[in-house]
Amino acid sequence: MYQDISQLIHDICSLAKKSKDLKLKEKVFDLTNLVIDLRNENEDIREKLKLLEGSLKKVEENTEFAKKMKIDPKGDKFWLEGETVPYCLKCWDSEHKKIHMTLWEDMGIWSCPEHY
Length: 116
Prior knowledge:
Residues 35-69 form a coiled coil. Keywords: Coiled coil. It is a single chain. The strands form two sheets. Strands 1-2-3 form a three-stranded antiparallel β-sheet. A two-stranded antiparallel sheet has the order 4-5. The chain has helices spanning 2-18, 22-67, 89-95, and strands spanning 69-71, 77-80, 87-88, 102-104, 109-111. A hairpin with a 6-residue loop joins β2 (77-80) and β3. The chain has two domains: 1-67; 69-116, no CATH class. By secondary structure, the chain is α+β, with helices and mostly antiparallel strands. Helices cover 60% and strands 13% of the residues.
């Protein structure tokens, strides 16, 4: 589409250059600037859309992950089916970090390496 518009603007500019009509030349100049502005705005919108799509994908992934969580009754950790090491619930709740906890075997407690 840009090729068609660019070619059309180029053709109009070529014709306007041959014309002695100053008003026509001004309008063609205005049109050219408008097309450039629209192209830049379109690029900005595409970038924002790409960022939003990435954010949406992350939200969807986190939602699917959260559906698989089995929260421990103590409320400090959660388990995923089939895994033997729990995750820190505090890290998940605050920043959606998936941090495995460490078992202190001598005390029989799980702790998060992020919160010593």
